[in-house]
Each structure stands twice: as structure tokens, then as C-alpha cells.
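Example record for the data management plan.
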Amino acid sequence: MINYLVIFEKTKTGYSAYSPDLPGCIATGPTKLQTKKNIHAAIQFHLDGMREEHIKFPKPQAESAILTFAE
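Corresponding structural encoding:
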């Protein structure tokens, strides 16, 4: 098992998502739930292609944190 960080962003028409450790692997959707399903499928497709080409999967390096500031 390997875990990749996924970033979700609200857009004017729904959501977009990407994984910083997998450049070019993105997905969109009208809802966050649909976008989550789409990015999961996109990452799986990306990794399957890497596997077929005998390319090593990148090691996860991205991290996240939430910082709080006074309004």
C-alpha cells in the first residue's frame, strides 16, 4: 500500500483535485464526492501506466498542515 496526499480545491463549477507527488495527475467534478472518486480513478490509471512501463512509483513526499490565524 502507498498513500499519496491529494489536494481538493473549490472552483466556480465544482471541485478540482491533484496529488503533488504525481505531477499531471488531476481530476475535476461537480461535487467533492465525485471529484474524490475521479481522482482515485485518475491516480490508479496513472500508477497502472507506470507499472506497465516499469517505472518506479514516486515515494510520497508531500505533507500538509492547517495553520490558524486571527481574523
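Summary line stored alongside the record: The mean pLDDT is 97.
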